[in-house]
Amino acid sequence: MRRAPALSFLLVTVFLDMLGLGLIVPIVPALMKAVTEDATAAAFWSGLLGSIYGLLQFVVSPLLGRLSDRYGRRPVLLASLTCLGVDWLAHAVSPGPWTLLVFHALAGACAGTNTVVNAYIADVTKPESRARAYGLIGSAFGLGFVAGPTIGGLLGAVDVRLPFFAAAALSFANVAYGWFVLPESRPGDRTTRLTLRMANPVAAIAVVLRRPVLGLLAYARFCADVARMIHQSIWTFFLTYQFSWSTAHVGVVMAAGALAGAVFQARAVGPLVRRLGDKRAAVAGSLLGVVALAGTAFVSVPWMLYVVQAVGVLGSVGGAAAQSWISRNVRADEQGTVHGALTGIGAVAETVVPVAAGAVFGWSLAYASPGLVFVGAAVFAALSALLLAVTPDVRTAQLD
C-alpha cells in the first residue's frame, strides 16, 4: 500500500457514506408521511425517490468515471460527497415531495463515490494487495450498515428530520477531511477524450461488455448484483412472514450478520485471496453465495437461518476477489471509465430488481412459497459463478 492516509480516507468515506444512508433508513417512511400527509402517497413517493436515484446513477456514472480519468480522482470524489451532503440537507428542510425528488435526482447524478473509490484503490495498490484493500472497503461498508440504523432510530425518536441533519453533517465533515488529507492518486490525463459516445451510458457500458475478458467479468458482476439486490430487497419481509419476527429482532440479526461479515472481510479476505488467487477465490465465493441463497429459500427454523448466514459471510470473499480481478484487466488510464460503466450496470439492478422481486414475493405468498424468490437469486448467483469459471485468468486487456 503506497498511501496509507489515502486508504484511511477511503475507509472513512465508505463508512460515513453507509452510516449516513443507514441513519435515514428507519426514518424515510415517517418523513415521507409527514411531507405528503398520506400513507399511500408516502409509499408512492418513497419508491419514486429510490427509482430516480438509481436511474440518474445509471445515466451519469460512466461519465463520472471518465471525468476522474481526465481530471483526477480527488475532485470527482469530493464533488460527489458534497452533492450527497446537499441531498441530505434538502431532506431535512424540504417542505414537499417535489423538492425531495429534485435533490435526490441530483444525488443520484453525483453518486460517484463507489466508482472513484474502486478506481483509487487500483491506483494506489499493487495487484497482489488489491483483494485485501477491497476487503477492507467491504468491512467499512458493513460497519457503517451496523451503526447507521441504530443511531438513526435513536435520533428519529427525538425528531424525524434530525437524522438527515446528522447525515448531512457527516458528509460535509468528510468533504473537509478529504480536502486536507486526501492526495491525488493519479494526475488527470487531458488526452482522455470526452465525447458524446462516452457520455452515453449505454454506449459506455457496451464498450466494456464487448471486451473479451472484461465483458465476461462484467456480466458475472451484473448477475451477482441481481442476486444481492433480490436478497437485500426481500430479506426483511421474508423473515417477518416466515418467523413472525418484530422489526427490532430482524434488525439485530441483520446487524450481527453485517458485523460478522465486516470482521471476516477485514481479517481473512486478503490471506484467502493470496492463497487461492483472484479467480479461484471469486468462483468459490460465488458458489458459497449460491448455497446461502438456496438455503435461505428453505429455512423453516431460526437456527437454519444462522447457518446460511454464516455461509453467506464466507461467500463475501468472492466480491473482493472479483473486484481485484477486474482491476487487473483494466489499464491505469481507464480505471475510472471502466468502474463508472460497472457502477452503471449495477444501477440497473438497483433500479429494476427491487420492484420485480417485490412483485414475485407477493405472488409467491398466494402459494405459500415465500422462499421462491431466493431460488431465483440463487440461479443468478450460479450464473455469476459459471461466468467467472469460464473467464480466462489473464492479467491485461486492451481497449477495442
Automatic annotation (TrEMBL):
Q: Which family does it belong to?
A: Belongs to the major facilitator superfamily. TCR/Tet family.
Which keywords does this chain's UniProt record carry? Membrane, Transmembrane, Transmembrane helix, Transport
Name the chain's protein. TCR/Tet family MFS transporter
Is NAD there in the keyword field? no
Q: Does the keyword Transport apply?
A: yes
Q: What is its main location?
A: membrane
Q: List the lineage, top down.
A: Bacteria, Bacillati, Actinomycetota, Actinomycetes, Streptosporangiales
Q: What species was this sequence derived from? A: Nonomuraea zeae
Q: How does it sit in the membrane?
A: Multi-pass membrane protein
**Cellular localisation:** Cell membrane
